[in-house]
């Protein structure tokens, strides 16, 4: 039943960083209780994401000038498509995250500046603040919805303990993670 972006668009070499599922309902993901947003601000290595072949992906989260908003900057090294044409330079994308209800700070809506598909739910569902953080994104488009799981770490390689923990949480929430890919940070500037 699960149609992955990879299967649909693999012929064209486009990697979508999400999976596509039938139905207009995103899975229930519990936001991390009483998240202290200040403690997740700063720079993270993105070590895992659904359906990606990017490398060297970093996120920097910062307070926005707008109350109840965060800024997100994503830096990445390349996509394979660009590689074909010999471009291999860093690539920066920004996003605005709005926290809709301040009593649930782990749940927001993200608006990627380069996304044609509109805003997505942005739910921080696990973190220990010091080593790792796990994020679920979901948006509805027509008769399908798109999911992505992003795992971030303070070190370039995520400790297996945290990966197993996040996988267990995803299993409990009945969210398949076969498409969870590792993002290499071994050949970055
Ligand atoms: C979250 O904070 C509220 C209010 O301070 C408190 O009542 C509640 O028990 C906390 N929940 C957890 C899971 O820590
Ligand atoms: C914010 O979330 C809390 C806890 O889920 C809920 O009780 C409250 O009604 C929400 N407020 C708004 C304005 O949606």
Automatic annotation (TrEMBL):
Listed name of the protein: Lipocalin/cytosolic fatty-acid binding domain-containing protein
GO biological-process terms attached to the record: lipid metabolic process; response to reactive oxygen species
Signal peptide stretch: 1-17
Gene3D superfamilies: 2.40.128.20
Cellular component terms (Gene Ontology): cytoplasm
Keywords linked to the UniProt accession: Signal
Superkingdom in the source lineage: Eukaryota
């Amino acid at each position: 039943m699960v149609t992955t972006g990879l299967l649909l668009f693999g012929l064209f070499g486009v990697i979508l960083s999400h999976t596509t599922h039938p139905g207009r309902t995103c899975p229930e993901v519990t936001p991390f209780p009483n998240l202290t947003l200040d403690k997740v601000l700063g720079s993270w290595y993105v070590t895992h994401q659904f359906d990606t072949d990017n490398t060297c992906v970093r996120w920097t989260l910062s307070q926005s000038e707008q109350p109840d908003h965060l800024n997100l900057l994503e830096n990445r090294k390349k996509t394979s498509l660009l590689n074909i044409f010999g471009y291999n330079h860093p690539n920066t994308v920004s996003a605005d995250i709005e926290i809709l209800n301040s009593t649930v700070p782990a749940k927001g809506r993200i608006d990627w500046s380069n996304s044609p598909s509109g805003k997505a739910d942005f739910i921080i569902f696990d973190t220990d603040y010091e080593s790792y953080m796990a994020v679920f994104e979901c948006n509805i488009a027509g008769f399908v919805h798109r999911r992505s799981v992003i795992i971030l770490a303070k070190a370039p390689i995520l400790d297996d303990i945290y990966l197993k923990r996040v996988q267990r949480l995803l299993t409990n929430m009945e969210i398949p993670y076969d498409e969870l890919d590792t993002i290499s940070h071994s050949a970055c500037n």
